[in-house]
Amino acid sequence: MTAVAIRDKAGFDYAGLDPTEAEQARGHAAWVRDTYGALQATTMETVAEIGLRLLQARETVGHGKFMPWVSSECGFSHSTALRMMDVAENIGPDQIRHVMNLPASFVYKVAAKSTPPEIREEFKAQLAAGERIYTGTIESRILEARMKAKRAKKRMRMSPAQIKASDARERREEAESERRAAESQAALAAARAVVEALFSRLTTDETEKLLELGKRARYRVADVVIERLGALTAADIAILA
Hints:
Elements: H1 19-37, H2 44-61, H3 63-73, H4 78-90, H5 93-96, H6 104-111, H7 117-129, H8 135-155, H9 160-200, H10 204-214, H11 218-228, H12 234-240
Helix pairs in contact: 1-2, 2-3, 2-4, 4-6, 10-11
């Protein structure tokens, strides 16, 4: 994390709070500002701690005054504050230690309010069970859910004719997607068959040599294959590539 410049702004007007609330809010501000400014927010655990303080401060100063308070007292943007609050609220201190090795950008996506709760709960259940987290799969599900919600919102503004045309277009796109998926599976099956046939005709030493060359450059693997197995066609090599 690079150095963070705390913005020099006029202080928050605490006149609308009673003395106890004002003291609490100032304490939250000092802690958040010092922790963030000292670059201690380098782990999701610290991010969650800051988020928890921000949630407490929001209850103290009130929802209508919270964002002005963040701007004048904390020194970072509203979006940064919301991300940290989402982590504290939607991941929680009990689970946060389990995400230490996951990319921060991924954790923010899971914690975001726009992420469907069922996806987030499945993720947290996987964490609790110690299962391997496939970030790409989860991110794809989140993106798909967000796009679906966006389409549903757009659909509410459509006329019946526009809805009919949109449904037809989605059916065509779905059919095309299924066709491409089937072609991909067929190509994968063909490639596996070629690989199995290839390795069944190689000696152990030749197989080890092929694998070693494969670590260096794929085109060299093709050269070895062509030299050793002249029966392979250019199409076979293309599938392997």
